[in-house]
Design a protein that fits this description.
Number of strands: 22
Structural class: alpha/beta
Helix content: 25-40%
Strand content: 15-25%
Shape: globular
Largest sheet: 9 strands, mixed
Number of helices: 15
Low-confidence stretches: none
Strand order of the largest sheet: 7-8-6-9-10-11-12-13-14
Mean pLDDT: 95
C-alpha cells in the first residue's frame, strides 16, 4: 500500500466504496488522515465498518469540517450533472480529487532523489493491452515494475515507492478528470474516438479529460501520442508548441501507406525513425493496432534505458491479455478469438481488420452509431452471428452481408463453429461485440468467459499462445 501524506489529523470525505474507494480510504488512514466514508450501497458501507472505518452519512454531514472530497471515478464530476457530493464540496470550498491524484501527492511528498518513475497510459481503445505490454517488457528487462490503476489493482494498493521502481498505470478519463498534479515521466495517449460522451458533456470535454495526462509532466518527460485521429494530431501539435518532448506514432494497414518518417506501425512491423523492427514473431500482437501498442511499449522501454534488443525480445514473448484478441481454442483448423473487450465499433474495427475473413459474433448493448462505421470492413465478414439487444438493429445495418440472429452466446458459438468447419481450411471465429455487455452480462470479462466456455464445450483444445 502507498500511504498518502498531507492530511494528517484532518477529516476527508470519501464517497464510493468500490475497489478504488476502499483502497484510497486505507491509504489515507495510513498517512494519518481521518477519512469519513459513505456509499449509496449498504454492502460497501458494511465492508468499511467491518474494517473499522468511520462510516458517516455524508448527506447530513457538516462539510465545513472536511479538507477534501475523494470521489469514486464512477460518480459524475460534471455531467450529466454533478454528483450531490460534488455540489456539497463546491459549496464548502474544498477540492474534489480521486485516487490517482492521491498517488501523485504521495510521490510529490518524497525526498529529492527518492521518487520512482511513472508511466501512464490512457486512450479510448488499447490502453489495457498497452499497459500490460509495457509492464511485461520492463519486467523482462529486469526492472522492478508495479502495474495497476484502471487495470488490475487500485493504484494506492501497489507496493510503497522505492527509487528503483517503475509504476505503470492505466488511467481512465474519469480518473484523469479528478487530477491536478499527476506527473508521469512517460505519458501515452493511444487514440481518441467518441466514448463516454454523456459523462464529459460531449467530445470536447472527453478530449480535454484525456489530455489531462500531459498537464503536469515535468521537463524532459516524454509524451507518446497516437495520431491516426485528428484529436491526437491536435494534441501533439499543441504540446509541441508548448515545448514538450512529443513522439507521434502513426499506423496504416499497409507499409506503403505509412508516412515516410517518424515512428510508424503496420501489421507485424514497427518503424522507429530509421530502425525497421519485424514483429512477425510476436504472435500476441496481430494487426496494426497491436503494432502501435508495440511502438508505445518499445518507445517507453528504450526511453527508460532498456536496450533495443531486450525490448524487442519482450514484445515477442508477450503472452497477451484475456478478452483482448485472445486465442482461446482450436477445433482442427478453426481458431476461436475472444475480443470481448471490443466494446465499441472502433475496437471491433481493429479486430476485424486483423483477419481477412471471420465468422463474426457481435452484439450486446449498442453504443451510439452502432456498427455503421464498420461498413468498409464488412468484406472481412464471412457471416455474422448477432446476440443481445442490438441484434435486430445490427441485422439491418449488415443488409446483404450473410448473418443470423442467434440471440445467445452459446447458440452463436455453436452456429459459427459449424459454419466455419463446413467452409474448410484455416478459419477464424471472432467474438468482437462492438457493444457493451450489460444487457446479458455484468461486464465484458464475464461475456468473454461465456464465449470461452461455449468454445471449450464444443471440444476445442485450449491455446497457450496466440
Amino acid at each position: 500500500m502507498i500511504p498518502v501524506p498531507g492530511f494528517e489529523g484532518r477529516r476527508v470525505a470519501l464517497f464510493g466504496l468500490g475497489r478504488s474507494g476502499i483502497t484510497a480510504a486505507r491509504a489515507l488512514q495510513a498517512g494519518g488522515a481521518l477519512p469519513v466514508l459513505w456509499d449509496d450501497g449498504v454492502s460497501g458501507r458494511m465492508q468499511a465498518e467491518a474494517e473499522g472505518f468511520n462510516v458517516g452519512d455524508l448527506t447530513v454531514a457538516d462539510w465545513s469540517g472536511f479538507d477534501a472530497l475523494v470521489l469514486s471515478p464512477g460518480a459524475p464530476l460534471t455531467h450529466p450533472k454533478p454528483h450531490w457530493t460534488v455540489d456539497k464540496a463546491h459549496a464548502a470550498g474544498i477540492p474534489v480529487i480521486g485516487d490517482i491524484e492521491l498517488f501523485a501527492r504521495a510521490l510529490d511528498a518524497l525526498p529529492a532523489g527518492q521518487r520512482p518513475r511513472v508511466v501512464a497510459i490512457t486512450g479510448t481503445n488499447g490502453k489495457s493491452t498497452t499497459t500490460a505490454l509495457i509492464a511485461y517488457v520492463l519486467k523482462q528487462a529486469g526492472l522492478k515494475v508495479h502495474m495497476g490503476g484502471n487495470i488490475g489493482i487500485g493504484v494506492l494498493a501497489l507496493p510503497a515507492p522505492t527509487p528503483d521502481a517503475v509504476y505503470v498505470i492505466e488511467v481512465s478519463s474519469y480518473q484523469l478528470d479528478l487530477t491536478t498534479s499527476f506527473a508521469p515521466d512517460v505519458a501515452i495517449l493511444t487514440n481518441i474516438s467518441p466514448d463516454h460522451l454523456d459523462r464529459h458533456g460531449g467530445m470536447e470535454g472527453y478530449v480535454k479529460a484525456k489530455a489531462r495526462i500531459f498537464q503536469s509532466q515535468p521537463d524532459g518527460a516524454l509524451a507518446l501520442i497516437g495520431i491516426d485521429e485528428d484529436w491526437g494530431k491536435a494534441r501533439a501539435d499543441r504540446l509541441e508548441g508548448e515545448g514538450a518532448n512529443v513522439r507521434r506514432i502513426a499506423t496504416a494497414r499497409l507499409e506503403a501507406d505509412l508516412p515516410t518518417s517518424g515512428w510508424r506501425a503496420a501489421p507485424a512491423l514497427l518503424l522507429a525513425d530509421n530502425d525497421r523492427i519485424d514483429l512477425s514473431d510476436a504472435r500476441s500482437l496481430p494487426g496494426r493496432h497491436n503494432a502501435q501498442n508495440a511502438a508505445f511499449a518499445y518507445a517507453t522501454a528504450t526511453a527508460l534505458g532498456v536496450a533495443p534488443d531486450v525490448a524487442l525480445s519482450g514484445l515477442k514473448a508477450f503472452p497477451g491479455l484475456a478478452h483482448r484478441m485472445e486465442a482461446v481454442g482450436r477445433i482442427n483448423e478453426v481458431r476461436f478469438i475472444n475480443d470481448s473487450k471490443g466494446t465499441n465499433a472502433d475496437a471491433a474495427a481493429q479486430a476485424l481488420a486483423s483477419y481477412p475473413a471471420v465468422f463474426w459474433i457481435a452484439g450486446g448493448k449498442a453504443k451510439e452509431g452502432g456498427i455503421e462505421s464498420l461498413r468498409p470492413l464488412f468484406g472481412h465478414v464471412t457471416k455474422a452471428y448477432l446476440i443481445g439487444e442490438a441484434a435486430d438493429a445490427f441485422a439491418v445495418t449488415l443488409g446483404d452481408v450473410p448473418h443470423v440472429v442467434a440471440h445467445t452466446m452459446e447458440r452463436a458459438v455453436q452456429m459459427a463453429a459449424a459454419d466455419a468447419a463446413k467452409a474448410g481450411g484455416e478459419q477464424v471465429v471472432l467474438l468482437s461485440p462492438a457493444c457493451a455487455s450489460f444487457d446479458q452480462f455484468p461486464d465484458f470479462e464475464v461475456r468473454g468467459e461465456a464465449f470461452r466456455a461455449a468454445v471449450l464445450a464444443l471440444g476445442a483444445e485450449a491455446e497457450s499462445a496466440r
